[in-house]
Amino acid sequence: MHIDLRSDTVTLPSKAMKLFMMEAPLGDDVFQEDPTINKLEAYAAKYFDKEAALFCASGTQTNQIAINVHCKPGDAVICSEDAHIYFYEGGGIAKNSGCSVQLLKGDRGRITAEAVAENIKDPTNPHYPLTRLVALEDTMNRGGGAIYDFNAIKEIRKVCDSNNLPLHLDGARVFNALIENKIQPHEYARPFDSISICLSKGLGAPVGSILLGNKDFIDRARRVRKVMGGGMRQAGIIAAGGLYAMQNNIDRLKEDHLHAKQLENELQQLTWIENVLPVQTNIIVAKVAAHKNVDKIIQKCAQKGLFFMPFGEQTFRMVTHLDITNKDINDCIHILKTIS
Ligand SMILES: *Cc1c(COP(=O)(O)O)cnc(C)c1O
């Protein structure tokens, strides 16, 4: 048995996806002559009603490029203390762009318009860094897949507008959010100046992320991507996987969410579980009882073929994805019940 719930990045391309990739027309993308990349970028831009898009190697790359385009060295980025751009991108905000951060506490990583407004520094006071960007994450990874209320996003947009600040979305799992909040992608994307989406998480492509924004922003992003060594040549061969994923694998995310709900319900019954963050999408974050050792539990499960990750003190994370079947979920529940 091998049930891998460590991340939704572990999915393998299906046969149909690989065939699609094999047949994709290719060209040199640094010359902007790769038809498949051009098609994917146009498809994604249209999907979110943005002017332009840029195919990149990873979500870290799209986020870091966006920060680099929006900010200058010495500027500050407002984000949650749990934001992927800060917590998981290797100090990239400082290293790549020379920027500092203003970290906000959030509800499962979701920050509020009030907190953003309170933390924007007075730009006329030379003591402070210039607040230059607000960044949100939806769904929120460290918040256990929590989804923003769209009205809260619109409120944050208003604060950005009155302070002349751009708003970036780390939408690595934005499709998981959109499946649940049922907001049309065009409407949802409107408050954001830039959006990063991942093709290799829930959507199941082997590689790739896309950065979205207006034409001028994407032109500048293309330059930064080249500087960061992200100019790829016949990369349509991987972009094809992303195009296939966008065309075929969005609606089925609902299934992953049902699987995650099922696991949440089962985990709640177990005596060795203290609590589970209410599941909203495909991420389950649970805390084990005080007298239990989370690493030992993870080890015991791994011996039985069930894999998941530690996620902070006494806590673990499970992520459902397209390679997890109904049977896997039943087997997983069976294994969890044998742990004491
Ligand atoms: C996975 C992830 C990213 C990007 O990760 P890469 O591994 O660089 O593609 C960005 N933001 C969030 C919230 C993520 O979960």
Automatic annotation (TrEMBL):
Record bears the keyword Transcription: no
GO molecular function per UniProt: L-allo-threonine aldolase activity
Lyase keyword on record: yes
A GO BP annotation: L-threonine catabolic process
Modified residue annotations for N6-(pyridoxal phosphate)lysine: 201
GO cellular component terms attached to this protein's record: cytosol
Residue ranges annotated for the Aromatic amino acid beta-eliminating lyase/threonine aldolase domain, each copy included: 4-289
Domain of life: Bacteria
Cofactor requirement: pyridoxal 5'-phosphate
Protein name: Threonine aldolase
Organism (species): Brumimicrobium salinarum
Upper taxonomic lineage: Bacteria, Pseudomonadati, Bacteroidota, Flavobacteriia, Flavobacteriales
